[in-house]
From TrEMBL:
The lineage of its organism: Eukaryota, Metazoa, Ecdysozoa, Nematoda, Chromadorea. This is DNA polymerase kappa. It comes from Heterodera schachtii. It catalyses: DNA(n) + a 2'-deoxyribonucleoside 5'-triphosphate = DNA(n+1) + diphosphate. InterPro entries: DNA/RNA_pol_sf, DNA_pol_Y-fam_lit_finger_sf, DNA_pol_Y-fam_little_finger, DNA_polymerase-Y, DNApol_IV, Rev_trsase/Diguanyl_cyclase, UmuC. GO terms for molecular function: DNA-directed DNA polymerase activity; metal ion binding. Its EC number is 2.7.7.7.
């Protein structure tokens, strides 16, 4: 059904008329998108059909043997279950929309969304009742709700508020992990163990004709016995505002502590949040969605409570399971996690081993990094379970094949992504992904793994530009409607990295092999991690990591940039002495320009995906890059490699004898080039040093 991905799982949308919403979306869908959706649905149907055929060919003996094997796996998984932790997932309620409504009283009681006619970042709960949600084109939102108000994104405000409630979280857990600007994972085990008595907090609210300041006194009967009331005149609306100050008490139990945390967030920002409490972060994240908005839900820390809870939970509620995976499972009559457990043999035989074992673990309510050994858990808990697997940013825009516009967007995305890392205590990552959605909605993602930590715009941008150049060249006449940049295999700020590594200098080979990314630490007996890609449900996506790029080869400017440079040279501008060597000024200036090139309408997405993608570090190690010389495969082996010098990339050569002398010289230079990893064959060597 066209538009089905816009319907359903979002908080506040349970009561919408799904058929009507789907009809309106279909009526306002372009031919390109309609064709894409039909093609996508056709591929899913084909996969379901193949699964059904394979299911019919299974024997009872196969199913029985598989069940016995999985029962042994379940016994091993139970050894990883941790029931002694108190994990909390905090999710701000419609964060971007809530900030705008807080600052503009005229938006509070009307359907509104943040974004543009091209794409919505979020919507308030009034708009969700009409079917308007995030990641939906704004013009479709207008069709669903004609009186919808759309306001542009203001990321400076969102970041400012995010830093405020992050400071609140840090008082409860100094190692809080921010999943994004508006969500956080906390471990309150230690904090609650130290809580010996109830806490009384000062509470400030507002009442009177002025409603500009939040929070408001919803019910006068809720005011405490000892209260201070201070009338003032609001500078914004000119009406009287009464500041009401009283106190509120919070107990020692888990629920009271989390209520206090949410209370402090509202006091500090005027914004509400919802919370999930459970024995692991996966369950806590699921629970945080159950009592939205401005509520909390706690799942008991007993195995019986967890198994019972998961039994009736729809598989779509599990982080990492999206529309495509849901459809494939539904084709096997698997709708709930209880169905997953009951039909574990069939799922295991029809899906990949790693995927089926992950689904089995999910059905049991076991998080990927729960183990029985307390010491090892303490060491890996923060660095593995709670931290994001990847961080990304993408932007949708009017389809264009204009080189200047595309390059400007890429620069802005790279700058914003790098600038967002400190707020999540991330140094950088060792895998870079470029996502491109073309005007016909075909999606391509290209992923490159490197043996250094990408920490700066200067390191990230050349990699992204190179991948964009290659894809644009292959589909040169096709306009692009979305660009996204992702960093994965993340390295945390508290990782034991040397100063050189933190600055982006490559590690030694021994140092590199001894370090593992923040969210990809694995033990041999541990289930795989699930890496959630924001649009990896697109089956026409090219396989990630299917190319290696040779560092000995040049990073050439994108084809459309070559044309631009030629035009500029005709206008009297300086042209490089060594064309296409990528060694001159433009890249050095890129990071500075991109920092000030903020664009509204960007959507950050580092948690939700529409299909499960299993990332195997050991398999990546076999195909991964172990030397920068293997990294950039951008020109043919026969192309000449230019030695870039400080004089602007001029190729220097001494006069030599003709004939055999020239051949010997060429062979000698080739040998030296292979041996000398420090030869600056492209402008990336400003930042990276080869492994010795």
């Amino acid at each position: 059904m066209i538009g089905s991905k816009f319907i359903g799982n979002k908080a506040g949308m349970s009561s919408i008329d799904k058929e009507q919403v789907a009809r309106i979306i279909a009526e306002n869908t372009s031919a390109n998108f309609e064709g894409y959706e039909k093609k996508r649905a056709s591929r899913i149907d084909e996969q379901i059909k193949r699964n059904r055929q394979r299911l019919d060919s299974l024997t009872e003996q196969q199913i029985k043997q598989t069940r016995e094997e999985l029962d042994r796996i379940i016994e091993d998984m139970e050894k990883w279950r941790r029931l002694d932790r108190i994990k909390v997932h905090i999710d701000m309620d419609a964060f971007y929309a809530a900030v705008e409504c807080r600052d503009n009283i005229h938006l509070r009681d009307v359907p509104m969304a943040v974004g543009s006619l091209s794409m919505l970042s979020t919507s308030n709960y009034a708009a969700r009742k009409f079917g308007v949600r995030s990641a939906m084109p704004g013009f479709i939102g207008k069709k669903l709700c004609p009186h919808l108000l759309i306001v542009p994104c203001n990321f400076s405000k969102y970041k400012r508020d995010s830093s405020v409630f992050r400071a609140v979280f840090q008082r409860y857990d100094s190692e809080v992990s921010m999943g994004s600007l508006d969500e956080a994972y906390l471990d309150l085990t230690h904090f609650i163990s130290q809580r010996k008595e109830p806490v009384i907090c000062r509470r400030v609210r507002f009442m009177g004709p002025c409603v500009c300041r939040l929070p408001l006194v919803a019910n006068p009967s809720e005011i405490g016995p000892e209260v201070e009331k201070t009338p003032t005149i609001c500078a914004k609306c000119g009406n009287e505002r009464i500041e009401v100050v009283d106190s509120i008490e919070f107990g020692q139990d888990v629920d009271s502590v989390v209520r206090q945390l949410r209370f402090e967030v509202e006091q500090a920002t005027g914004l509400t949040c919802s919370a999930g409490i459970a024995s692991n972060s996966m369950l806590a994240k699921i629970c945080s969605d159950l009592n939205k908005p401005n509520g909390q839900f706690r799942l008991g820390n007993s195995r019986e409570s967890i198994v019972s809870f998961m039994h009736s939970l729809p598989v779509r509620k599990v982080p990492g399971i999206g529309a495509v995976t849901e459809s494939l499972l539904k084709g096997l009559d698997v709708v709930t996690c209880g169905d997953l457990l009951a039909k574990r043999s069939i799922v295991h035989l029809l899906l990949t081993k790693r995927c089926s074992e992950w689904l089995l673990r999910v059905a049991l309510g076991i998080s990927g990094h729960e183990i029985a050994d307390d010491g090892e858990m303490e060491q890996n808990d923060k660095n593995d379970e709670d931290n994001p697997k990847s961080t990304s940013i993408e932007r949708t825009f009017t389809p264009t094949n204009n080189s200047d516009d595309l390059l400007s967007i890429v620069r802005s995305l790279c700058a914003r992504l790098i600038q967002s890392l400190p707020s999540s205590e991330i140094v950088g990552g060792r895998a870079v992904t470029l996502k491109i959605k073309f005007a016909n909605f075909d999606v391509v993602t290209r992923c490159k793994s490197v043996n250094f930590v990408v920490t700066t715009v200067g390191q990230l941008l050349p990699i992204i530009e190179a991948m964009l150049r290659k894809e644009f060249k292959e589909r040169r006449n096709m306009a692009i409607r979305l660009l996204g940049v992702r960093l994965s295999q993340l390295v945390s700020a508290d990782a034991n990295l040397g100063e050189e590594a933190k600055k982006g200098v490559q590690l030694s080979l021994a140092g590199f092999m001894s370090r593992r990314p923040l969210a990809s630490k694995k033990r041999r007996d541990e289930p795989p991690e699930v890496v959630e890609l924001s649009s990896s449900d697109e089956m026409d996506t090219k396989e990630e990591g299917d190319e290696t790029i040779n560092g000995e080869e040049e990073v050439k400017p994108m084809p459309f940039l070559e044309e631009k440079e030629e035009k500029e040279s005709k206008n009297g501008q300086r042209k490089s002495e060594s064309p296409n060597n990528g060694c001159d000024g433009p890249r050095a200036e890129t990071s500075e320009r991109s920092r000030s090139n903020g664009q509204p309408g960007m959507v950050c997405d580092n948690t939700h995906g529409d299909i499960i993608v299993i990332e195997d570090d050991e398999e990546e190690g076999e195909d991964g890059i172990v030397n920068i010389d293997e990294y950039f495969d951008l020109i043919n082996d026969d192309d000449e490699v230019i030695d870039c010098t400080k004089s602007g990339g001029e190729k220097k050569a001494k006069n030599g004898r003709k004939g055999g002398g020239q051949k010997r010289k060429k062979r000698r230079e080739e040998t030296e080039r292979k041996k000398d990893g420090n030869r600056k064959t492209n402008d990336l060597f400003k930042y990276f040093h080869t492994i010795r």
